[in-house]
Every structure is written in structure tokens, then in C-alpha cells.
Amino acid sequence: MTIVITGATGHLGRLTIQSLLAKGVPASEIVGLGRQVDKIADLGVTVKQVAYEDPEALRAAFEGADKLLFISGSEAGNRLAQHRNVVDAAQAANVGLIVYTSAPKADTTDMKLAAEHKTTEQWIKDTGLPYVFLRNNWYVENYSVEQALAHGLFGAAGDGKISGSPRADYAEAAAAVLTTDGHEGKVYELGGEAFTLTELAAEIARQSGKPVTYTDLGEEKFREMLVGVGLPEAFAAILADVDRAASQGALFVSREDLEKLLGRPATPLATSIKAELAAVQG
Length: 282
What we know:
With 282 residues, the chain is α/β, with parallel strands linked by helices.
């Protein structure tokens, strides 16, 4: 059995490898691909420096793969060329199963962030290879507790519920799919305990003992704020649109799929905030 993981040197990739090892998968059966290979050199798995922009290297790395965890590229708005390379290489190598980390409700949402994922899902289907789509919801870590303590939370999500969970939950779910049978052709909408940004701010305030509030700016003003703090215009527009969509329910899903794969309850928001506060406070 060989499990290949793209984007393995990122946060989600490393956590997934750790979860696979914890489930008893031998390190010799795991191949991690990425740019900064030093980030996972300590895990004992096979590591290869491979970028999404290198189709020949991708194909060579995929040869003999029984299962491929295709972690989507991190550059929103620039993913399609990278994803095309991965899908083509997977098809050429005839991998046994493609497990792709997608976006919430990718095939039905109007959220701009999901457009590249919708296209990638279709490309994967078109290969004819067995697949599983893991539609990961928002990571709790996307909201900086440190910045919230210093400046408060800002956004445009209104009272929209966000079914967030820490990266470790999504990594454990991916590891479960990679190590058990019966998932081929499944689409999992993965999300944890739902919260509004007002509720998130209140939880940070409760645990820290410091005042933390959420200010809803609306989509356009939130985009302007993001540009003002240094984000590229295109990326700021995507993030502002995520909040706009969240205000309309785009990031709310049942916990059922995630908890089924985990075999336990999703990590509570309070637990995630406790861990983030501990990291900030040392």
C-alpha cells in the first residue's frame, strides 16, 4: 500500500501524515510531496520536493500510488493550472483512488472561492478514476486569536453560521478515508460546531478575560479593510465574498459527515479557542 500526499509540507498535510502514522500506517508506505520538504523531514516518511507546476515530477511521484490525497493549492484564484497538472498526472499514473480536499457545497454555492474547486471536482470525475471529495469547511485557525485580542474581529458574515473545525479534525477525517474502505464516489460535507463571528468573539473574550467584539462591515468595506492591511485586491475580494456567502448560509453544514469519519464528536469551538489562546500566551 502506498499513500501519496500532495501539499504535504503545509499545515493540513503534516497533520494528515501524523494522523496516518497514529492509525498505524507504516512510514514506509507514506510519500509526502511539497516545496519545503524540511517541514516534514522529522516524520520519517518518504519526502519528495515536487511542485504543482511540475507535471513530469508529479507523474513520476504518483506512479504506483494506491491512494492519492490531493490537497488543493493554497493560492486562491490561481489554482486551476496547478490542479490541472495534478489531475492529469494522476490519470497518467492510473492512481487507485483520488481523495480531493474541496470547498463547502462546491457544486451549488455561488461563493467565488469554490469555483476552482467545482471545476477540479469535474476534472477528477472525468478521469474515470475512483474518487472521494472532502469538502472541508472553514478552519477555526483562519481566525487569528492574537489579532482578535489586539483589534477585535472584523468581517461581513453578519449572523451567518460557520461550521468551523480545527485543521486536525479535517486531517483525521482524511486519514480515516485513506485507511478504510467504502468511500469511493462519496462526497463528504465536512464541518464542526457552527458559530457566528459574534459568538466566536464572545468565546475568545470569555476565555481570555479581555473584551473582544465583532464588527460587521459589509462586503465592500471589509474588502477595503483587507486591501488596507496589505492583501492583494483579488484575494481581498475573494475573502470578502466568502463572508458575504457565509452571511447567507454558505458555510453552514451538518456535523454528521465529519463526526462519522472521526468516530467521535467534532472538536468544540471552546476547545479550539483554548488551544489557540495557549499558543498565543505561551
